[in-house]
Amino acid sequence: MRYAFWQRCVKAFVRILIGAKNQKLYDTFDWEAGCHAIYKPDLTYPQYYRTSNFHGIKGGYLNREAAVTYDAVTALASPPNETWLRQQVLTKIVRDPECILDLGCGTGSMTIMLKAAYPNAQVIGLDLSPHMLCMAQKKSQKNNLDIQWLHGLAEQSGLAAHSFDVITVCMVFHEMPPHISKLVLRECHRLVKPEGQVIILDGNQNRLRHTDWLIKLFREPYSTAYAAGNVQEWMEEAQLNTLPTRYVGWIHQITTSTKPKHEERPDPIPTEAIPAQADNH
Q1: Looking at residues 160-182, what average pLDDT do you find?
Q2: pTM, to two decimals
Q3: What residue spans define the domains of the chain?
């Protein structure tokens, strides 16, 4: 009874948050052309992604409905304030980075904040949904921010090894099976430079274990398995030097790690490692 009541409240609130502007975008934006400009044709969507109805949306993130509702749902699921939560990620960055990667960037909210904070850095947002990347690109263009948007897998990005000073993964792990999250962290270890940082912002696993009703409310297919795990241990398994997880906000946590200094020294980043930005505009 309580769950059904809150579900109705959430749906009503999301409709309000979406508003007429996003409804018009949903109806009028040329999604086919926008996705075609970003879409990587040889990419195969993994089963865990293409068969899951994230947030109760049929087809998950592979449609425009998910793209226009994502920001509203994320804001609702990020008490007390989504922007404040994401700012906590910025406070964990210890030196000015030259190259930043935001894995599973969604509609680019964190990516945009990273670029605004470090305007001289090369900032890349990678996501598996071309629809989400369309929204991310529109948001960055609106803010006149030069960000590169890539269509790809977080667990197998295809980017050059030890290329990034900072890698962020925000609000992603609760939306994939734990064994995929571990693969993502292995990819982070491959991609980050020695002494570079990997920063994970996601749901508070300890709290989510005891609030199954919250998981059901937002209709997340993998959150129960995520809550049963431990991101800090996953990062340590990926051979990252990890600080204790810090709980932030009401239902979130941040886990920060660095790649050991004694790891292989980074080679020069080949020009083909990061596709030209013109390819995504």
Answers
A1: 97
A2: 0.86
A3: 1-263+276-281
